[in-house]
Amino acid sequence: MERYDAPINANDASFERVVLQASIPIVAVFWSAQETPRQQLNSVLEHTAQEYAGEVLVVKLEAADAPQARARYNAETLPQFLFFRGFRSDKKGKRQGNLVARAKGLPSAEMLRPWVEYLLERGPKPETKKPSRDESSTSDGHPLTATDANFEQKVLGASTPVLVDFWAAWCGPCRMVAPLIEQLAQEFAGRAVVAKLDVDANPVTAQQYSVQSIPTLILFRNGQPADRVVGVQPIHMLRQKLEALCR
Fold first, then answer.
1. Between 20 and 30 A from 152 (CA), which of 6, 31, 93, 127?
2. 129 found inside a domain
3. Does the pLDDT value for residue 2 go beyond 80?
4. Residue 140: predicted pLDDT
5. Which domain holds residue 86?
6. Annotated active-site positions, please?
7. How many domains does the chain divide into?
8. Do 12 and 116 sit in the same domain of this protein?
9. pLDDT per residue as tens digits for the range 78-124
């Protein structure tokens, strides 16, 4: 097989040949331009393809171009990584590439590396446990502090819906929203995550989700943005939106 040092694209028509009949392990990612930060995803995939050139093939599957493959592997949450061992020969003859693991959400290249090492049978399978109650819920009745470093764990990896308040200390309207966020954290303790992210201290996440004015409140479900509110809004409206995601 040709040695690839960059991701390649596949679709339903080429999925069997490119993914299931590949002679080397495959890192396949289902993604959507509407739901996935393209630049960040490309950076992770390009880095991985270069690091593991000749050992692993990185394959991008735009959801709109591969609906059958996506349904076949039940890849509902996007982006979603599927890890296939290469097409092998055994005593019973050749078999298709084996799906050995999957990971949801958009990781960094560093976080993706253990999965690739597992795929290459050079390391243990990474844990995919859900965040504990202490990590994922506002059991103390106060908002969590989200940062660039913990955003994937606290927000994208949460097993419940999440409301994130993007704010800054100098922002007057943000101070008006703050007591509403505190109240929602109390009301939804154990049912949803309520978090605050300082955009000045955490510019990467703010840029990733195109936060251009504050306060901006983004609601997440299953690791994906589900709704967005900009500016100061009445608490009953915020409560209604969060309640809808908890059903």
1. 6
2. no
3. no
4. 56
5. 8-120
6. 171, 174
7. 2
8. yes
9. 889 999 987 654 444 444 568 889 888 877 888 899 999 999 999 99
